[in-house]
């Protein structure tokens, strides 16, 4: 059975599944080059139609990842919406009109009025959107294919359960948590014998994700995109001051006393309409203290939520998905909860992975076997070198192509010599985090590479740490691993943070300088043999079995797709060394040594930190 899953909301994406196995997955942004594309992923669907020969005769089902299509809007429109939310309710009412602002104003009205507005809008939107989706599919050559819709949060839960379950017959608790989707912002499920049973649902308006997004906007960053920057800023603040600010956030949202598996706000306005309150309550609080207070509040609330459910049900295997669980520092604390037997988070668990849950739910609903569902990682996109001929024709006058006999060994040699190397190899990884195939790599023992990468290539915010990619079998030499994480393939997708060991100087440039934690990708041979071989070769040359790994893109742009995208970044940045499959590509006339940082100092870790 061939099933196409589509997310037509934030982080638009598609997933193609045959008999429970994921064949292909790609985000719309990688094809349109529009960061965080929102709406129907036309280019991604057309890519599947073209490369897999999809049509109404061989495609059994199309699955949509929301019961109602989300509002079509651009990133700029989203930012303007947050700016409007920062004004007073009186100003909003003055500028409102029924066609465009009822949903935004609904959060300011009493519950009965709010519900009527939303019911009217949902009915009207559902009719229009179903017709629009049918038209979009027809334009892609897929008219006549049966279409099903699945609940937003059931898709998050299904991705985690079907993709990560430790044993298909043992019970698991599955938690979903995000800004909101299909009138919910959090679900708790008991999953057993292939079935998901909903235990509790928190309606929108009581959303921890909304609060985090609103603070992200208040701090001058992009909501639904830069929350990770707020998390990265938090450890720099004084812990005692962070606790004081966390108490302010705790006045907004807590567990529901009547049902602690749900959240309930303690303020009159919905969490999506609380920007004015935040601006008032934190108007004289320093930015790092706001970030730290928010992070502390988030961790404590989620910990109490999960710990309470584990205690009440006695189920000690826990899985999670939804945008809030992209917060690796919260995941780190969950993994260390006493008594937890098993914990994992579906990789890149924002809305981009909703179609994974949709196609697996459809597979089970159509009679497919649970044992057929296989998840072998996120290397699911197009191959790197398919546009190499086009790249030669387009860029041959400005770059040189050198064929390599052993690209992994040559890359390791360049890295050991201090070079910073961009790598575009094999199938593109799906999701928010580069996992070695579309990565910029460096020697993390050299702290000066942080400044070099930020200045010449990434233009990242100065406080943000990089991440290490560690040879899986050597990982415990560098980080402390909680016993609850899945064995033997621990953390292959950068969804967990870890405390580092005394060998942290070997990955100093990829450790958070304020708390010495690291968001580690553990690289396992069976998941990515070529990247594993590269790190292994680097280890043999240096005695260090770890690399700095950051996404191969310019700041604010999507991760590169193929050779043409990769060369564009090469030409627009200070990079000199690019490896695309078997080819080393350099700018014509560039110095042979390539971009590299100065040698690390002989001092300890304290001497190597940035100011």
TrEMBL record:
A Pfam match: Carbam_trans_C
User: Which keywords does this Swiss-Prot/TrEMBL entry list?
Assistant: Transferase
EC number(s) from the headed UniProt entry: 2.1.3.-
SUPFAM superfamilies hit by this protein: Actin-like ATPase domain (SSF53067)
Nucleotide-binding found in the keyword field? no
Domain Carbamoyltransferase C-terminal, which positions?
A: 412-587
GO MF annotation, one: transferase activity
Domain of life of the native organism: Bacteria
Describe the location of the Carbamoyltransferase domain by residue ranges. 3-358
Q: Which EC class is the enzyme in?
A: transferase
Q: Which InterPro entries match?
A: ATPase_NBD, Carbam_trans_C, Carbam_trans_C_sf, Carbtransf_dom, NodU/CmcH_Carbamoyltrnsfr
Keyword Disulfide bond listed? The answer is no
Q: Which family does it belong to?
A: Belongs to the NodU/CmcH family.
PANTHER family per the record? NODULATION PROTEIN U (PTHR34847)
Protein name in UniProt? Nodulation protein NolNO
Record lineage: Bacteria, Pseudomonadati, Nitrospirota, Nitrospiria, Nitrospirales
């Amino acid at each position: 059975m061939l099933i196409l899953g589509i997310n037509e909301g934030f982080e638009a994406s598609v997933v193609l599944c045959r008999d429970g196995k994921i064949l292909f997955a790609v985000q719309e942004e990688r094809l349109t080059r529009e960061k965080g594309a929102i709406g129907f992923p036309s280019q991604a669907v057309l890519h599947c139609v073209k490369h897999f020969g999809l049509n109404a005769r061989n495609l059994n089902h199309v699955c949509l990842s929301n019961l109602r299509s989300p509002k079509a809007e651009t990133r700029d429109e989203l930012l303007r919406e947050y700016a409007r939310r920062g004004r007073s309710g009186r100003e909003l009412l003055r500028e409102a009109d029924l066609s465009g602002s009822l949903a935004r104003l609904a959060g300011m009205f009493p519950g009965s009025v709010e519900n009527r507005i939303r019911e009217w809008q949902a009915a009207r939107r559902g009719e229009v959107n179903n017709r629009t989706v049918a038209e979009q599919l027809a334009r892609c050559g897929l008219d006549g294919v049966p279409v099903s819709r699945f609940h937003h949060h059931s898709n998050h839960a299904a991705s985690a359960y079907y993709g990560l379950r430790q044993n298909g017959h043992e019970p698991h608790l599955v938690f979903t948590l995000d800004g909101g989707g299909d009138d919910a912002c959090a679900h708790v499920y008991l999953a057993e014998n292939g079935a998901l049973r909903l235990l509790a649902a928190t309606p929108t308006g009581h959303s921890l994700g909304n609060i985090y997004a609103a603070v992200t906007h208040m701090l001058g960053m992009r909501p639904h995109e830069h929350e990770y920057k707020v998390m990265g800023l938090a450890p720099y603040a004084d812990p005692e001051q962070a606790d004081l600010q966390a108490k302010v956030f705790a006045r907004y949202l807590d567990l529901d006393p009547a049902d602690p598996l749900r959240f309930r706000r303690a303020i009159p306005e919905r969490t999506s309409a609380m920007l004015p309150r935040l601006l008032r309550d934190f108007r004289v609080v320093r930015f790092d203290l706001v970030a730290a207070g928010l992070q502390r509040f988030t961790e404590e609330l989620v910990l109490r939520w999960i710990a309470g459910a584990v205690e009440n049900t006695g189920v000690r295997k826990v899985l999670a998905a939804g945008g809030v669980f992209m917060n690796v520092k919260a995941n780190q604390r969950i993994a260390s909860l006493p008594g937890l037997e098993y914990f994992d988070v579906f990789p890149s668990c924002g809305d981009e992975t909703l179609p994974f849950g949709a196609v697996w739910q459809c597979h089970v609903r159509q009679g497919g076997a649970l044992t057929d569902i296989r998840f072998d990682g996120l290397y699911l996109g197009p191959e790197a070198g398919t546009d190499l001929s086009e790249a030669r024709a387009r860029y041959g006058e400005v770059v040189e192509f050198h064929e390599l006999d052993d690209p992994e060994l040559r890359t390791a040699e360049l890295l050991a010599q201090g070079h910073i190397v961009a790598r575009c190899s094999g199938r593109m990884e799906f999701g928010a985090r580069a996992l070695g195939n579309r990565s910029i790599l460096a020697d993390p023992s050299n702290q000066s590479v942080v400044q070099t990468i930020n200045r010449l290539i990434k233009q990242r915010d100065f406080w943000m740490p990089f991440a290490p990619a560690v040879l899986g079998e050597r990982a415990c030499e560098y980080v402390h691993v909680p016993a609850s994480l899945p064995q033997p393939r621990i953390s292959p997708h950068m969804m967990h943070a870890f405390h580092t060991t005394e060998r942290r100087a070997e990955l100093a440039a990829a450790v958070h300088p304020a708390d010495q934690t690291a968001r580690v990708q553990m690289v396992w041979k069976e998941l990515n043999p070529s990247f594993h071989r590269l790190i292994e070769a680097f280890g043999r040359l240096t005695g260090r079995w770890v690399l700095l790994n950051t996404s191969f893109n310019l700041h604010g742009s999507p991760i590169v797709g193929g050779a043409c995208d990769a060369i564009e970044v090469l030409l627009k940045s200070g990079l000199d060394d690019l490896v695309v499959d078997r080819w080393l590509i350099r700018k014509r006339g560039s110095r042979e040594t390539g971009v590299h940082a100065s040698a690390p100092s002989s001092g300890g870790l304290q001497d190597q930190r940035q100011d």
